[in-house]
């Protein structure tokens, strides 16, 4: 399997189950990459929506993607703490063009105090009918919602107390080296 190199910038492409592009993040700096895991960082990166609209992210973020888990986690660093946005998605693939995954609508938002909310259940139900998500995908996603909740409650992976600090420091270091500052 191909994977990006540490210090390289990549795009992130999110698709829908029917194969249509959902969203593109223009530039993410690779902090760690293996066949199974990519951790990246970005700040004020341009995001392009499927309809062509663009917007810019507002804060630094550490992004966690795994080739075996059906979710990815965006850790947003804000003045009042770290917010986590967890996308239920296919495991990622990387093909030199971009890191890619299928977004399956369901999301979990985690607040700095580690309380959380499951979001977009109506959107998931609608898209499941529209795009014909098979039962096997539905079962996988529900198991991964449970897995994510356990990770949150156990402070595992990106929810571990030092995770964001460690990777944000590496992001700042690689960014300085990249720009010669």
Give short descriptive properties of this protein:
single chain; 181 residues; alpha+beta; FomD barrel-like fold; 7-stranded mixed barrel; 3 helices; 11 strands; globular
Helix run count: 3
Helicity range: 25-40%
Q: How many strands?
A: 11
Strand fraction equals: 35-45%
Biggest β-sheet strands, sense, barrel? 7 strands, mixed, barrel
| Uncertain residue ranges | none
Global Rg: 16 Å
For this entry, what is the oligomeric state of its chains? single chain
User: In angstroms, what separates the terminal alpha carbons?
Assistant: 34 Å
For this structure, what is the CATH class? Mainly Beta
Q: What is the CATH superfamily label? A: FomD-like
Shape: globular
Mean pLDDT over all positions: 96
CATH topology name? FomD barrel-like fold
Going by helix content, strand content and strand pairing, the class is: alpha+beta
Give the strand line-up of the largest sheet: 1-2-3-6-7-8-10
Q: What is the number of independent domains?
A: 1
- Secondary-structure element string: EEEEEEEEEEEHHH
Q: Based on the structure given, which CATH architecture is correct? A: Beta Barrel
What does this protein look like?
The chain is of the alpha+beta class and 181 residues long. It has one domain (9-175): FomD barrel-like fold (Beta Barrel). 27% of the residues lie in helices and 41% in strands. The protein is built from three helices and eleven strands. It has helices at 121-131, 135-154, 163-179; strands at residues 9-15, 21-33, 37-42, 46-49, 54-56, 61-66, 71-78, 81-89, 93-94, 99-110, 116-119. A seven-stranded mixed β-barrel has the order 1-2-3-6-7-8-10. The longest helix has 20 residues, at 135-154. The radius of gyration is 16 Å and the shape is globular. The mean pLDDT is 96.
């Amino acid at each position: 399997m191909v994977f990006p190199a540490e210090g390289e910038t990549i795009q992130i492409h999110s698709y829908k189950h029917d194969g249509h592009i959902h969203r593109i993040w223009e530039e993410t700096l690779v902090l760690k990459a293996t066949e199974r895991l990519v951790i990246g960082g970005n700040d004020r990166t341009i995001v392009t929506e499927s309809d062509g609209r663009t917007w810019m992210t507002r804060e630094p973020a550490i992004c966690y993607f795994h080739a075996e888990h059906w979710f990815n986690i965006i850790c947003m660093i804000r003045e009042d703490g770290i917010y986590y946005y967890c996308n239920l998605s296919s495991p990622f693939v990387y093909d030199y063009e971009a890191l890619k995954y299928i977004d399956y609508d369901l999301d979990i938002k985690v607040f700095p105090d580690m309380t959380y909310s499951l979001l977009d259940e109506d959107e998931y139900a609608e898209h499941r009918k529209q795009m014909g998500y098979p039962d096997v995908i539905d079962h996988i996603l529900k198991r991964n919602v449970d897995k994510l909740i356990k990770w949150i409650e156990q402070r595992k992976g990106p929810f571990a107390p030092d995770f964001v600090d460690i990777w944000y420091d590496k992001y700042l270091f690689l960014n300085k080296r990249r720009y010669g500052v």
